[in-house]
Amino acid sequence: MRYTELANTLVKGITEGKFAVGDQLPSELALADQYDVSRTTVRAALDIVEGLGLITRRRRAGTIVCSNTTSNTYTKSVNTIEDLVNYASHTEREVLGVANVVADERLAAALECKPGATWLRIRMLRTEMDSEGTPLCWNDAYVDPDIGQRIAPLVPNGTGLLSQIIEQTVGVTVADIKQTIGATTITGEMARRLLVEPGVAGLEITRTYLDDAKKPFLITVNTYPADKFRFTFWMHRAPTSG
């Protein structure tokens, strides 16, 4: 993604001395113009650089280089939610169907809920925003029934996250997101919709959205063909003592 490329460029500039400790980085607008990206992309890149302990950002003071070596900790919680928003704004949502479901043992295990729990399931297909509408992933969203009945008529084909629609309509905001990644097999209608052969390997990403009371109100299960998704994260060596 563009913001990770920009983050890499800024990190390299700081660690190699292009920007010295105490220097002020160009403004978000200037960086957006320089690298021909949006300000949203610039903010996401700066989130990464700040998480590495290289910069501080303060209103009126701007973005200041505070270190030329990365810290031994990296917090990515807020950036993760921003990543999802960025992804959702660059893909199309096609609603395939809405239904009330009762979790059997298999679904309950997948959603980490009790068997017999009821959910409103919104089934969708995510596609690229290109002329062909290339399919990216199959998405089953399980919504708290009380919330689901209110937002289901408001979920059109288009961009954006269900969590944003829920926040705007019901006022429930995301406090935390738990993400689980595992292997799966793509079969049936899912294979047909994703334009892959039945039985091919896939990647299943389950995200549990929790409100301020730590109660799950939305669970999404996203299934990608193996060649459509790559998960990348950085690891940094902790400084040695002495």
UniProtKB/TrEMBL annotation:
Annotated ranges, domain HTH gntR-type: 1-68
Protein's UniProt name: Transcriptional regulator, GntR family
SMART domains linked: HTH_GNTR, UTRA
Domain of life according to the entry: Bacteria
Coiled coil: none
Statement: the UniProt record of this protein carries the keyword Endoplasmic reticulum: no
GO biological process: negative regulation of DNA-templated transcription
Pfam assignment, any one: UTRA
Entry GO MF terms: DNA binding; DNA-binding transcription factor activity
